[in-house]
Amino acid sequence: MLNLVLFGPPGAGKGTQSNLLIDRYDLVHLSTGDILRGEIAAGTVLGLEAKTLMDSGDLVPDAVVIGMISSKLDNNSKANGFIFDGFPRTTAQAEALDDLLNEKGTSISAMLSLIVADEELIRRLLARGESSGRADDQNKSIIANRINEYNNKTAPLKDYYSTQNKLSEIKGNGAVEDIASKLNNVIDAL
Ligand code: B4P
Predict the structure, then answer these.
(1) Atom of ligand 1 nearest to the CA of 128
(2) In a domain, 149, yes or no
(3) Mean confidence (pLDDT) of the chain
(4) pLDDT at 133 over 90
(5) Which domain does 153 fall in, by range?
(6) Does the pLDDT at position 57 exceed 90?
(7) Are 136 and 55 within 8 A, CB to CB?
(8) How confident is the model at residue 123 (pLDDT cuts 50, 70, 90)?
(9) Angle (CA) 41 47 50, round 5°
(10) Percent of the chain at pLDDT above 90?
(11) Does 74 map to a domain?
(12) Which of 59, 83, 114, 159 is the S-S candidate for 172 at Cβ 3.0 to 4.6 Å?
């Protein structure tokens, strides 16, 4: 199985690149952000709980997202592999993911980490906010909180995967196709 963690700060291009990778490598795309926004749109209890946190740029509790990923893995038992987009975001999530994959006799193949400067992240997210309607894309202070959450809780996961020799860092600025081509080169060499 090919199991990829697509990693990076908010606005780094994780969702954008995932959409290209799933077609090329025939993988199942698991975006915790998309799943949570689906719960909000459906008006579930989980969605209602998550909405306030997401709208202010805070992370949703680990137990919630780990439970979501666990059931998605069970529902896709015949998959060739997965792209984890926006997950894991904390050490507890990374450890839980290792355990879940281990139970299925597989593991993470690589973490692909997109590097983009903060000014470019802010520019992209504000631009998306003009059309997405997402509350967390609407103003600089919420975006700053998301970047802060990433730096404090999520960026340390690079060390987690680096000690397992699974970390590749890729520059995430420039044309979408050029970044996709760099990602493909890393994956094809695995
Ligand atoms: P996510 O949905 O994961 O949102 P994101 O970090 O903003 O990344 P996204 O994938 O949407 O954006 P992308 O970089 O592709 O998370 C939202 C919230 O959900 C979190 O704040 C948190 O509250 C909650 N959450 C999700 N997962 C969680 C977890 N595991 N644990 C706890 N909480 C969790 O693209 C951004 C923009 O850049 C787009 O407009 C795109 O078109 C543009 N873009 C992409 N590539 C570009 C390029 N090369 N050049 C120019 N623009 C580009």
Answers:
(1) 40
(2) yes
(3) 97
(4) no
(5) 2-27+79-184
(6) yes
(7) yes
(8) very high
(9) 125
(10) 99
(11) no
(12) 114
Residues 148-158 have a mean pLDDT of 98
- Nearest CA, atom 19, ligand 1: 33
User: Any idea what the CATH number is for the domain that residue 21 is in?
Assistant: 3.40.50.300
- Could you tell which of 5, 16, 85 is best to mutate to test the pocket of ligand 1, judged by most ligand atoms within 8 Å of the CB? 16
C-beta of 13 in contact with ligand 1 (< 6 A): yes
- Cα of 10 from ligand 1 centre, angstroms: 5
147 within a domain of the structure (yes/no)? yes
> In this model, does residue 176 exceed pLDDT 90?
yes
Which of 5-9, 13-17, 83-87, 130-134 comes out lowest in average pLDDT?
130-134
Nearest atom of ligand 1 to the alpha carbon of 124 = 38
Q: Per-residue confidence at 59, pLDDT binned at 50, 70, 90? A: very high
Name the residues annotated as catalytic. 14, 89, 128, 134, 146
Query: How many domains does the chain divide into?
Result: 1
pLDDT in the model for residue 9: 98
